[in-house]
């Protein structure tokens, strides 16, 4: 009888041990996959940060320049004569933004079940960054739509439209400042490569 209980105990123990080890292996695999996801996202965030470090000062320069010349008669007259004058004067160093920040890795990770294993503080800062990236460029599309209007430089609307363009650029610059603040937080939380600093 004693041997019978020992056999039952050994069987139960081996089943429980097997289940425990299987669960541990699955959790380790899940954590490993979540860290791989996180590395892909960190790489994407790093690239976005490097791009933003280049364009943010340029956008600030554009805003400051437009703010300083928007009332000058020569600038307003050049704009009324040909709306491309606006772009020629402001975008002397290149286009306003050559591409939008990427978010492919983040989009993939959000739908992946292993994202649940990424620590909360990392998910929180990533969520802030990617949400702010989207919000930052809403006024940019409004800026482009406004600029494409056929009557943007009509004499009776030119000054008002210059003010509207300036407002959109100011909004972009303000939103970029918040985005850069989140990137600064992410440098520590995500342990981003210091080469971007």
Stretches where pLDDT is under 50 for at least 5 consecutive residues are: none
Please state roughly what percent of the residues sit in beta strands, choosing from under 5%, 5-15%, 15-25%, 25-35%, 35-45% or over 45%: under 5%
Report how far apart the termini are: 73 Å
Helical stretch count?
A: 7
Largest sheet geometry: none
**SSE sequence, one letter per element:** HHHHHHH
Report Rg: 27 Å
Q: Give helix % range.
A: over 70%
Care to count the β-strands? 0
Shape: rod-shaped
Average pLDDT metric: 87
Oligomer: single chain
Q: Which structural class do the helices and strands define?
A: mainly alpha
In short:
The protein is an all-alpha fold. It has seven helices and no strands.
Q: What do you see in this structure?
A:
It contains 7 helices and no strands. The mean pLDDT is 87. α1 runs antiparallel to α7, α5 packs antiparallel against α7 and α6 (138-148) packs antiparallel against α7 (158-189). The protein has helices at residues 2-69, 73-81, 84-90, 104-110, 120-136, 138-148, 158-189. With 197 residues, it is mainly alpha-helical.
